Amino acid sequence: MGIGFSALCPYGSVCFLRDHYCSARVSSDCCKERRDPHMATRVRPSSKRCAIIGGSGFLGRHLVERLVDKGYTVNVFDIRQAYELPGVTFHQGDLCDRQALLVALKEVSVVFHCASPAPASDDRALFQRVNIDGTRTVIQACHEAGVQKLILTSSASVVFEGTDIKNGREDLPYAKKPIDYYTETKIQQEKLVLEACSKDKGFLTVAIRPHGIFGPRDPQLVPILVDTARRGKMKFIIGDGSNLVDFTYVENVVHGHILAAEHLKADSPLCGQAYHITNDEPVRFWDFMSQILVGLGYSAPRYHLPYTLVYGIALLLWLIAVLLRPLIRIKPTFTPMRVALAGTHHYYSCARAKKDMGYQPLVPLREAIVRTVESYPHLRKGK
Ligand SMILES: NC(=O)C1=CN([C@@H]2O[C@H](COP(=O)(O)OP(=O)(O)OC[C@H]3O[C@@H](n4cnc5c(N)ncnc54)[C@H](O)[C@@H]3O)[C@@H](O)[C@H]2O)C=CC1
Ligand SMILES: CC(C)CCC[C@@H](C)[C@H]1CC[C@H]2C3=C(CC[C@]12C)[C@@]1(C)CCC(=O)C[C@@H]1CC3
């Protein structure tokens, strides 16, 4: 299938950025480029730019690399510049700053918004400012800059309240009691973006809800796991160890985002909707952790502890940390959120993404784990 082109466009192989122009007017610049017989097969539609807000981050950078591979010119907007890449222009700034954003969104038709404070932060004001106020600013800047499509990286956690979710679909209600500030503000953020979808204004939005992203350069999952193991705290399995969870390889998440951008059109079911993107292979949480740990030379956890006991302790430690905050900053490893994630079922159906955008995971879980383990030689035991 040509990516993102309607059947009218005969050159529909690469560009998704101005798809409806192409379908209507084959003489558009993007199609002219494609008709030139002297052009290389991998066309760089230089006048077509997309922007990735949060493009210096783990997911953002993988997304940028894939888009560049596909021949796109990419603007990255982030509070930090983490790397350099040909074909990528960096704009350093805070997404709450509309003027700074406008510069990065100039002549851009598709925006991917995958910036967020780290979920482990307990800074409520920061989450409110970036995820809620900042996302309002992103939407406003998109309108002003004439952006046509906004793809938000939301999270499957927006429906998670700390109790089992088995094969959860997108129609589950948002969590009434979100488990932390991160989740609370991701819910508000998703609502803002989906409500902004307007066919009349020519501004289309969609939200991708990945779950448990992992892969090379992830700053969270593997590094936190290894750090916990190195401190001798990864000996215990929370609960009976049978809880199934989604862990999603980063390349599959990127694939879901790009498919969403391609399929988001005024007449498509994607407009204003949320989509789970997973590996579609729920795995026992503790088997997954053990495979990563053993792959890196550490022992797998063996002893079982009752879930309610560990959750209670985590809650107590969190309370103590909050009370002592004016005097000392403590960051417990086993936060209530992590314990809930480690001891319950939370896996999601991606049937809607399969149906509406032809999503299928590209990298199976087993292969994804091997690639991930190989990408962290510096975290191997003894290094
Ligand atoms: N890592 C995971 O397992 C999951 C992540 N997500 C979502 O995916 C998105 C990307 O997450 P990751 O790549 O893991 O995080 P990350 O922390 O690696 O990347 C986030 C990026 O956003 C940037 N950023 C933060 N505040 C900013 C601001 N005010 N202005 C401009 N840039 C700012 C950071 O500098 C960073 O480069 C986030 O929206 C997150 O909520 C959703 C589900 C699971
Ligand atoms: C100390 C151990 C009990 C757990 C170590 C691994 C954890 C750091 C990760 C296991 C599940 C992960 C996860 C997220 C972050 C890292 C884990 C807690 C998210 C909270 C990241 C942001 C989201 O949107 C949802 C993720 C769910 C799974």
TrEMBL record:
Catalysis: reaction(s): a 3beta-hydroxysteroid-4alpha-carboxylate + NADP(+) = a 3-oxosteroid + CO2 + NADPH; 4alpha-carboxyzymosterol + NADP(+) = zymosterone + CO2 + NADPH; 4alpha-carboxy-4beta-methyl-5alpha-cholest-8-en-3beta-ol + NADP(+) = 4alpha-methyl-5alpha-cholest-8-en-3-one + CO2 + NADPH; 4alpha-carboxy-4beta-methyl-5alpha-cholest-8-en-3beta-ol + NAD(+) = 4alpha-methyl-5alpha-cholest-8-en-3-one + CO2 + NADH
Q: How does the protein's chain sit in the membrane according to the entry?
A: Single-pass membrane protein
Q: In which pathway does it act?
A: Steroid biosynthesis; zymosterol biosynthesis; zymosterol from lanosterol: step 4/6
Which InterPro entries would you find in this protein's record?
3Beta_OHSteriod_DH/Estase, Lipid_A_modif_metabolic_enz, NAD(P)-bd_dom_sf
> Is Transcription found in the keyword set?
no
> What UniProt keywords apply to this chain's record, in alphabetical order?
Acetylation, Cholesterol biosynthesis, Cholesterol metabolism, Endoplasmic reticulum, Lipid biosynthesis, Lipid droplet, Lipid metabolism, Membrane, NAD, Oxidoreductase, Steroid biosynthesis, Steroid metabolism, Sterol biosynthesis, Sterol metabolism, Transmembrane, Transmembrane helix
Principal cellular location given in the protein's record? endoplasmic reticulum
Q: Which residues are in the 3-beta hydroxysteroid dehydrogenase/isomerase domain?
A: 51-305
Which residues are listed as membrane-spanning? 309-328
Top-rank taxon:
Eukaryota
Q: Which GO terms describe its molecular function?
A: 3-beta-hydroxysteroid dehydrogenase [NAD(P)+]/C4-decarboxylase activity
Q: Where does it localize?
A: Endoplasmic reticulum membrane; Lipid droplet
Per the record, the GO terms for biological process are:
cholesterol biosynthetic process
Any idea of its EC number?
1.1.1.170
* Gene Ontology cellular-component annotations: endoplasmic reticulum membrane; lipid droplet
**Classification via Pfam families:** 3Beta_HSD
Per the similarity annotation, which family is this? Answer: Belongs to the 3-beta-HSD family.
The subunit field of the Swiss-Prot or TrEMBL record says: Homodimer.
What is the protein name given in its UniProt record? Sterol-4-alpha-carboxylate 3-dehydrogenase, decarboxylating
